[in-house]
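Project standup — Tuesday

K.O.: blocked on the structure for the chain from last sprint. Re-posting the sequence here as requested.
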Amino acid sequence: MDNKSKKIGLVGLGVMGKPMAKNLVKNGYSLVVFDIKPEPVEELVSLGAESRSTPAAVAADCDIVITMLPNSPHVKQVVSGENGLMEGFKPGMIYIDMSSISPVVAKELSETVATKGVIMLDAPVSGGEPKAKAGTMSIMVGGKQEIFDSVIDVFQAMGRDVTLVGEIGSGNVCKLSNQIMVALHLAAVSEAMVFAEKAGADPEKVYQAIRGGLAGSTVLDAKMPMILDRNFKPGGPIWMHTKDLLNVRDAALAIDAPIPLSTMVLEAMKACKCDGHVNDDHSGIIQYWEKLANIEVKRRK
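H.V.: unblocked you, prediction finished:
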């Protein structure tokens, strides 16, 4: 299905939302945007988007509405708060939340918007800012097959790998599962490379030796060069990954799922926050292990 004849609203023009909005405009979609900060709104308007003064006004003028916000409370406020989407929703609309939130909250929001005759998909993303800019994010969707099929072109304007995982909430279950795996992998890389450095080995050569074997991975290849260069400019910052692991903790508590390793990595990330590294890329979690070992993993001259 082609939705280019319809108006699409996007609320939230932050690190991820702004490049997503740009890709929608670039691909020929009629876009209406809102953000609490004027600068990204002005930038999108200069590229051809329209703007509205409230989320309610966005919903009132659009057929499909997307939100991309930091966490569950922000999404709930934009949906149900004063001048929120619920004030502008009309029967038959599709609401897509692409934030990374609690799957429990995603289900609650679906029930809330259904009272206005609106059908919801939860569709969190993976890939960070670089893939958001490139339009190559992975998108994990929860909701009804027919609704997913009706907006697949919208997803494909923002991402490459788009998968319907299951019913509403499943998108965020998948995203949190992804974040568990990435967090634990980053912790394993950190521990291994601090061990290698402490033992006197060249960490760059250790990386080159193991990257083609079973321990090699996308995470290792994406993050190890950043560690060696001490380049912790965020693609996915520690604060954001901490938020995801807090959502993992809350969801796991609700369903009695064991998460001992995730809990340990969460504490390491919280320690990084206390040390002033909260805005570093999540590969900067290695600084927790480095501090314990009193060494620094970096490229040798």
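K.O.: great, moving the ticket to review. The beta strands are 7-11, 30-34, 50-51, 64-67, 94-97, 119-122, 125-126, 137-142, 159-166. The mean pLDDT is 97.
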